[in-house]
Amino acid sequence: MPRLSKRTVDALKPLEKDYFEWDDDLPGFGVRVMPTGRKSYLIQYRDSSRRTRRKALGRHGTVTADEAKAEARQLLSSVARGENPAEDYKRKKGAPTVRELGDRFMSDYVPTRCKPSTAKEYRRSFDLFIYPAFGSLKAEDVKRSDVADLHHKLRDKPYQANRTLGVLSVMFNQAEVWGLRPDGSNPCRHIKKYTEEKRERYLSGEELARLGQTLNNLEEAGTESQAAINAIRLLVLTGCRLGEIQTLKWEYIQRNALHLPDSKTGKKKVPIGDEVHSVLDDIERIGENPYVITGKLPGSHITDMQKPWRRIRAAAGLDDLRIHDLRHSYASSAVGMGESLPMIGKLLGHSQVQTTARYAHLADDPVTASANKISSHISMLLRTRR
Q1: What is the CATH number of domain 205-366?
Q2: Which of 57, 145, 184, 350 would disulfide-bridge 355, Cβ 3.0–4.6 Å?
């Protein structure tokens, strides 16, 4: 048959069975005519295993003969370079979307690699930000510009923007491991995170006293959950993270330490003093419940500390204080009492020196006070007349 064109393809008549007509000008380019009269352009070639392969290019009338031929020329040229467009199309058609990849990531990767609290944050990022932005895109088609655009849209929430970028980066790294994206193709690369202002809030001596008195008043009045009051006291006195106190079990308390099997930084030992033991001694053990800070359901631990904490801090006049600031306050108190940064890092269970280094500037206060005292004394001697 001569060169395929609109005129020649229009002239083809349907038969009882489908048949092919091939373009003499471009070997491998043809049109398939169905008994229904439908006509579709395609290419036919042999792959590296000498197997005959076909790939559709579009329906006649939807695409023109010239458009189909231009695409056919490119695809047949790729075949000459060893590529397999039919197989590539089949693979891409079955490739997962970002939503499908995210669901697999959450079910196959996260449970064995992340803590429940981290998994919860990952799920939040997917549901609120990632899926709405490009959940329907093929995972292999996500470009750096797509991720950069999402990161930019969250610029007014720098912490959330950076966490979402981190989730995407881990997921796309895993996609490479699973063979769903080429190696080194992570679209999160080179996207600069926003600067996050580290909030530093420490309780002064007066504020600590006020918080302590508030806890005593609420306990005496019986207007606040005893479990919440116990939790706050333990947080203040140990410097532990909230999750570590919420999930603290009686069996973890051994002599003068809390032996936590699974903290944020892994297994760790938290030294405790007499005052912590005093608080623990006053906590009632409830039936078969293994937890120190019990929840409402039998055998459970407290799960929501934010609501009672908002009430407690309001009663104490500390509305800007977060629960995590209690941990910072423990560290600042230790610095003020002259404890070294390595010792503070050990007390708090830091796995990296850089984490403890954030408290280094607090050590300047007592040093400055000493320097001022010494210089004042020397200055007084210099001014003394004989």
Answers
A1: 1.10.443.10
A2: 350
Which amino acid, one-letter code, is at 187? P
Following DSSP, what letter does each residue of 12-58 receive, concatenated? PPP-SS-EEEE-SSSTTEEEEE-TTS-EEEEEEEE-TT--EEEEEEE
* Domain boundaries 98-177, corresponding CATH code: 1.10.150
**pLDDT tens digits, residue range 220-253?**
999 999 999 999 999 988 888 899 999 999 999 9
DSSP one-letter string for 78-116: HHHTT--HHHHHHHHHHSPBHHHHHHHIIIIIHHHHS-H
The residues, ordered by sequence, that sit 6+ positions from 338 with a Cβ below 8 Å of its Cβ are 366
Domain assignments of the chain as residue spans, ordered by start: 6-94, 98-177, 205-366
Q: Which CATH class is domain 6-94?
A: alpha beta
pLDDT digits 0-9 by tens, 309-325 = 999 999 999 999 999 88
